[in-house]
Amino acid sequence: MKCRVCDANLSHTFLNLGHQPPSNSLLTREKLSQPEVTFPLVAMVCDNCRLVQVPESKSANEIFDKEYVYFSSGSRAWLDHSSAFAKMAKERFKLNKNSKVVEIASNDGYLLKNFVEMQVPCLGIEPASGPARTAKINGIPTLTEFFNSQLASKLSIESGKADLIIGNNVLAHVPGLNDFVQGMKYLLKPQGTITMEFPHLCRLVDGNQFDTIYQEHFSYFSLTSVSTVFNNQGLRIFDVEVLPTHGGSLRIYANHSEDIRATLSSVTSLLEREATIGIKTDAYYDNFRVKAEKARSEFLLFLLSERRASKTVVALGAAAKGNTFLNFCGVHPDLVSRVSDNTPFKIGKFLPGSHIPVCSEDTVFKDVVDYALILPWNHRDEIIQKFRDKAKRHNTRFVTAIPNLQVYSPPDFTPKNLSYLVKPIYQ
Ligand code: TMP
Ligand code: ZN
């Protein structure tokens, strides 16, 4: 196995999560009676450029196909975040009706609709046909294609280069990273700007977010490793913001290396901070497994003790990260009976691996629920808010399992650390 950025041999394991099915490949009832394909889910770290990466076992073409069910518009908080970004970008980069904005992985148009409303010409590029179709229906110009250097050259010749290229939560999904970033270089106007958001590796490590590792996520970036990728293609990161979204993300701003805009101190100081915590040393990546195993033991002890006390546990949010977590823990419907989701395409299907049935948010509280496990902990506050009244009526406690087990009891739902690890299971 070779590093997808620098071609060095990969020999250093960051975390081995065993064999798992692809996290977003939900199953229909018919598929439940057929064999299910699993792939090794092993995150490696490159000793040379320090990119944390999952080797491509299922190709991107197979993952982002017509079955792909992730719709970005599912979260109100994410929609608000995106609309605030669009307004800021219009202002900061002086975008108007003569500008051109391209968003790579534009999904269902959750972000570009803001540029359409502000009358800034835009184009979305989205390979997953379901979300792309929704965007087109809503009047957002969208190409149902994978972005790469070939498409970028074609677009820049046929329809011109972009003032702003946006890519939110896409960089991790790209197997051919160098070619992808080269494509952005081709498509960017000489004074244009690229902005990209992605989860920050340092938050993954600090926050024990091992569940965000899954086959769709090929790479996990620090500012240090992403800077190498951009610099190698003649692009320079000139600003960076630390965001709370998705458990802690970075938003990088890049331009052509020769652009006159200076590199801001936000970049140099974050690079220094990463160096100080040891991002270029082996020690930083070692022993992450211990943290992940602790979260698993705690969660399983919780499930088994509550099961023994005849309590019922359901889950809220059929997020991809939930599948990594449930499959790493080896949980099935006998311990978590159902999971709700607000994505219509997921309802009626079954989670890959665990085979937990997905129901609507209206029906998840249909009978007694003692515990409701929030799988997408990044949407915790929004989900607690949504189910607060129902939980009060049913005396249901919310639970999150990452970074460690927390239980939120009515009436105030403030989190408490219940350490099942110190309690014997059989008393
Ligand atoms: P994400 O963590 O990758 O954004 O995935 C979140 C999943 O949770 C997605 O399937 C939508 C679902 N969800 C709900 O079911 N209800 C909600 O209120 C929110 C915010 C998300
Ligand atoms: Zn490398």
Please, could you describe this protein's structure?
The chain has 427 residues and is α/β, with parallel strands linked by helices. It has twelve helices and 18 strands. It has helices spanning 60-63, 76-92, 112-117, 129-137, 149-158, 177-187, 201-206, 223-232, 265-276, 288-308, 320-329, 380-394; strands spanning 12-20, 39-45, 52-53, 101-104, 122-125, 142-143, 162-168, 188-199, 219-220, 235-243, 249-256, 313-316, 339-340, 358-359, 371-374, 397-400, 406-408, 415-417. Strands 6-5-4-7-8-11-10 form a seven-stranded mixed sheet. Strand 12, helix 11 (320-329) and strand 13 form a beta-alpha-beta unit. Helix 5 packs parallel to helix 6 (177-187). It is globular. Thymidine-5'-phosphate (TMP) binds at residues 74-75, 317-321, 340-343, 376, 378-379, 382-383, 386.
Domain count: the total is 2
Low-confidence stretches: 421-427
Top-tier CATH class of the largest domain: Alpha Beta
Query: Which hetero ligands occur in this complex?
Result: thymidine-5'-phosphate, zinc ion
Mean pLDDT: 94
Q: Strand-and-helix sequence, N→C?
A: EEEHHEHEHEHEHEHEHEEHHEHEEEHEEE
CATH architecture of the largest domain: 3-Layer(aba) Sandwich
Let me know the number of strands.
18
Q: Calculate Rg over CA atoms.
A: 22 Å
Total helical segments: 12
Oligomer: single chain
Describe the biggest sheet?
7 strands, mixed
* Shape designation: globular
CA distance, first residue to last residue: 48 Å
